[in-house]
Recover the amino acids of this structure.
């Protein structure tokens, strides 16, 4: 990530934080505003990246060892001389490039973005698909969105899908629910099969995990017992 | 977008800016820190969103008219009771939901994120795939990344998603279920808030349609009546 003429040290900090979040380690700054960008330490956990950040006085020097230089732009009212691609559409290609060598991702100043002179150092341009009425993003947020998209699939493998209760458990739950509804007077005793199917479909629609099926079964059994053993009745308890 | 207990007005501003960038207009804040979140006007071009932002004193109120409530979490060192999905994997489903009704996307405070109590109001959880060593993102950047992903391809037509019960209905169902479980002896009367949250999470996990929520409510009410009006008691019927 190369930040060009960044004015607000807070933005250097949030850019570094996003880099840390997405596992991007090399930060370079070109002509940062103010005496020292190293004061920009506000970002939680980002200090290793800020400490090893390098400062350059020109873009040419900052990207000298890179194979691909990508400029970011809001693409507002500007005649562009480069191919301009949408971040989400370009991302698959860029991820391949990232695997093959050093890729520089340039972000311009908060006020004016990258100048035409800055862009002349780029192979191609990237824009984040934002709303026509408000294209220009906050710098730290733009860095976060780009790195999220480019770092995708470099991260941890996906979580397992939620487990589902076995059908036998759902049948048991359906049976106890039917019994409870009869005990509660919601259904007539020996309700017909159409009603039974309706209740079963309801239970199956809930997409229960094994734990939740168990939980509901326990609840229903307790209520069923209460309904069939009124307080006056000490018969067979 | 629902910001819960946000401390830094700057973060409300950058969240609003990202919303403006990605065409998301309705901002709600729950218990923002400090005298007034309306001071958070620093974000360029975001003022219409901030001006129309609504403040609430509880999450339940803030999401009452929503069909789907999604919590965001860094998923660090926490036992989670919800299905947790990666933003990029869940996005296609969520875009369909967005076409069908109000979806709330909850973000917790800068320091602690969403609490377990906060999460009990959610149907499911989302995390941004970040590096294991530095999971927790800056709030404004997390909002930007989520909205970038979810706003993608909003123009493409989608099939109708399954309709969901409104949160206010789920709250009603939770209340009646709690009452029934107490009446049935499954829970102690005046069960503590941890139990209440557990029951609420269960109800939200079921992903009920409006019709099913209605159906279950009717069933529970009938059983509750039966449990609280034993056959010998002809007092006030």
């Amino acid at each position: 990530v190369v930040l060009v003429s960044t004015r607000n040290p807070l933005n250097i900090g949030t850019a570094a934080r996003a880099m840390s979040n997405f596992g991007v380690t090399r930060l370079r700054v070109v002509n940062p505003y103010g005496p020292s960008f190293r004061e920009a330490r506000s970002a939680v956990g980002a200090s290793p990246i800020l400490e090893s950040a390098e400062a350059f006085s020109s873009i040419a020097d900052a990207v000298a060892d890179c194979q691909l230089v990508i400029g970011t732009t809001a693409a507002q009212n500007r005649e562009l001389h480069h191919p301009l691609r949408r971040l989400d559409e370009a991302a698959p290609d860029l991820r391949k490039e990232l695997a093959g060598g050093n890729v520089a991702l340039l972000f311009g100043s908060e006020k004016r973005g990258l100048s035409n002179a800055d862009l002349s150092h780029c192979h191609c341009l990237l824009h984040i698909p934002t709303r026509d009425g408000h294209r220009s993003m906050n710098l730290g947020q733009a860095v976060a969105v780009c790195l999220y998209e480019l770092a995708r699939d470099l991260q941890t493998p996906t979580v397992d899908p939620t487990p589902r209760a076995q059908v036998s458990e759902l049948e048991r739950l359906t049976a106890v629910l039917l019994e409870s509804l009869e005990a509660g007077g919601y259904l007539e005793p020996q309700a017909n099969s159409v009603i039974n199917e309706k209740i079963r479909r309801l239970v199956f629609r809930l997409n229960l995990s094994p734990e939740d099926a168990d939980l509901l079964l326990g609840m229903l059994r307790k209520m069923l017992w209460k309904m069939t053993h009124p307080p006056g009745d000490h018969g067979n308890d």
Q: What stands out?
A: Chain A touches chain B through 63 residues (CB under 8 Å). The radius of gyration of chain A is 30 Å. Chain A has a mean pLDDT of 82.
